[in-house]
Amino acid sequence: MARRGNIALVNLDTGAVLPPPKARTPHTMDGSYTLNAYTDDAALYTLALSGAEWATIDWVRSHGGAGAAVKVTPAAVAEDIHATETTAKTALARLVKLNILLKTSPRSQTYQLNPRRFWEGSGDAQVQACRRLDPPPITPDAKAVAAAKKAAAKRTGKTPSAVTEPAAGAATTPRPRRASTTKTTGGTR
Q: Which residues of 82-116 are buried (b: 16+ CB within 10 A; e: fewer)?
């Protein structure tokens, strides 16, 4: 019977207790493999991404790279994001190094956004993509670590060399903006 304590399903016309509903059908996301267990990647705001890198992520996503692998050439990206081809190549290389973009093979020009972080499509297809690609976690590189040390030094007033290195993938909580101590009266001085 479908009872929880003193609760049961009852037919209001006859007063008879109804049989319990049929068992829940298992879902693809159930079981030992859940995508929620893999969200411990470094936050994107801690990676010190440049404008060209953000634009490249957006370009790949808008061309279908969040659900499947797409062909990406630096020339096409550079033309659309209004940058040089060298800048586009550098952005692609760093995004691959950070594991934000995954190459389908070392010599191909097809990329896919990491399905752990970026996905458009059904949950079943996401699970299959994660199994097929076995996406590595997004991890900070030397540039991201240096930017974190510089921000910590600025916050604490120490020199960047005196700040201890943050743990790999450790994200810091953004602090609230400092309130201005000067008051304006709205008039002219």
A: ebeeebbebbbebbeebbbbbebeeeeeebbbbbb
Q: Please report which confidence band the pLDDT of residue 188 belongs to, taking 50, 70 and 90 as the band edges.
A: low
Q: How many beta carbons lie within 10 A of that of residue 151, not counting itself? A: 17
The identity of residue 179, as a single letter, is A
| C-alpha distance from residue 122 to each of 32, 66, 129, 181 (Å) | 19, 12, 11, 50
Phi-psi region of 169 (alpha: psi -120 to 50; beta: other; left: phi over 0): left
Residue of 32, 36, 59 lying closest to 126 (CA atoms): 36
Assign 47 to helix, strand or coil. Answer: coil
Q: Which amino acid is present at 53?
A: E
Token reading at 52: 């060209």
pLDDT value of position 43: 79
